[in-house]
Amino acid sequence: MLKAGVLGAGHLGKIHLKLLQQSEEYELVGFYDANKENAEKVASEFGYKHFDDLDELIAAVDMIDVVTPTLSHFEVAKKVITAGKHLFIEKPITSTYEEAEELIKLAKKHNVKGQVGHVERFNPAFQAVADRIENPMFIEAHRLAEFNPRGTDVPVVLDLMIHDIDAVLSVVKSDVKKINASGVSVISDTPDIANARIEFENGCVANLTASRISMKNMRKSRFFQRDAYISVDFLDKVCEVVKMKDAPEKPDDYAMILQNAEGIKKQIYFDNPSVSPNNAILEELESFANAINNDTEPVVTLEQGAKALKVANQVIANFNV
Length: 321
What we know:
By secondary structure, the protein is α/β, with parallel strands linked by helices. It has a domain at 2-116 and 280-299: Rossmann fold (3-Layer(aba) Sandwich). It has helices at 11-22, 36-46, 54-59, 73-82, 97-109, 124-129, 156-171, 280-294, 302-317, and strands at residues 2-7, 26-32, 63-66, 86-90, 114-117, 138-144, 176-184, 193-200, 205-211, 218-225, 228-233, 238-246, 256-259, 265-270. Strands 7-8-9-6-10-11-12-14-13 form a nine-stranded mixed β-sheet. A five-stranded parallel β-sheet has the order 2-1-3-4-5, with helices on both faces. Strand 11 and strand 12 (238-246) form a beta hairpin. Helix 4 (73-82) runs parallel beside helix 5 (97-109), helix 5 (97-109) runs antiparallel to helix 9 (302-317) and helix 7 packs across helix 9. The protein is globular. The mean pLDDT is 93.
């Protein structure tokens, strides 16, 4: 079992602590939190070992799980990597792309593995259709959330939209060509609602909307490609695949047939894969353990996390506020 330590014991950090303790892949050694009062409270309430010194925690483990505010990611991740320890780090990987690039170089130099916590890659609904998304040419995503003070230290693009940016980049095998975006600050100092139109070199267009001031929660994406429409509800964990094929000469009485102006007939049919329930956070953590133990590439590499951050920062830079 890999010895694991957690850095940060806030809302998400406590979830990671619980899951690492439950996991058969890890031995939870303990945690460090800069807020001593909070650290003592968490240690007392849940029984996790609290380290007063971060360096002592790093020295005692094989892997550090960084669940701190984004602004502190770079400095602590740098310390973890230079100590020769594997790094799991929550999204966004760092505050700037330059910081992410430096972490990538350091990880190669010290021969350690890193994974970024883009948890939606492990959402069972997305996993069920990911291999069916082939050369999508139009993507639409809505990620809407009710207001929560957590996360307002960064723009909504880095807080919410980056989930969809990463998902899109994982299925669109092309470079970004152009970005148009707009964002509005309503309750925070940074934009709380944003829209981005991302055009790729291969002609694909992704239209992404994110809001943290909505009346209800929504996390839906739709992927359109030749002869297929695929939808993913990340919140309710359901998916739908609608495909079209050439209609037979004698279709079934209940077949859904479309005919275009040229007289070409297509039959619509549903090919919905089963969704296997999972705990996405536990699965991403255990997938990282597998990558370490088997010396394979993590599902979400530091490079992929950096690429998502780069596009997210380009969205912010293109805001027409």
